[in-house]
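Changelog note: in this version the structure field was regenerated for every chain. One regenerated record is shown below for reference.
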Amino acid sequence: MRRHTVVAFGVALLLPVAVSAQDRRWLAEASVGWAGLVDDATKNYLLTGGTVRRDVSPRVSIGPEFVIMSNPNSLRDRIVMFTGNVVFDSAPDARVSAFAVGGVGMFWGREQFPDGPYWSSDPAFTAGGGLRANLTKSVAVGGEYRIGWELHQRVSGFARVRW
């Protein structure tokens, strides 16, 4: 009898976790935009990136983001960022909603000089927000602004698919 009580109590505690896990969904976003690295003067970069995130609650999702920034004036000037992001949606089921995003990770850069290439790496973070328009329950588009370290700012648009 005691074993049945322990099992019933365990099921009662774990069932809400299992049920809520079934409601959680994945999403993938692809983004393109502009990034400006602040140095003596702002260096302009084309930004392309992508993320895959998992909902951990109706308003919060987490996951990695991979971004490549390339300088259109130099084929050898590249920056790669890999961050783990947290996104907070103000109204995830609304037609248009605001969101906030923050992430931490690593920043790798390669720049070509007359003496040869220079490689660098630093810890990185980004923080910002934007607006998202839900076209359907599975598809959304939007735009965002972020600032981050290695000191840069970026403006990008994205398309999202949720499953």
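Spot check on this record: The chain has one domain: 24-162. Residues 24-162 form a domain with the Porin fold (CATH 2.40.160.20).
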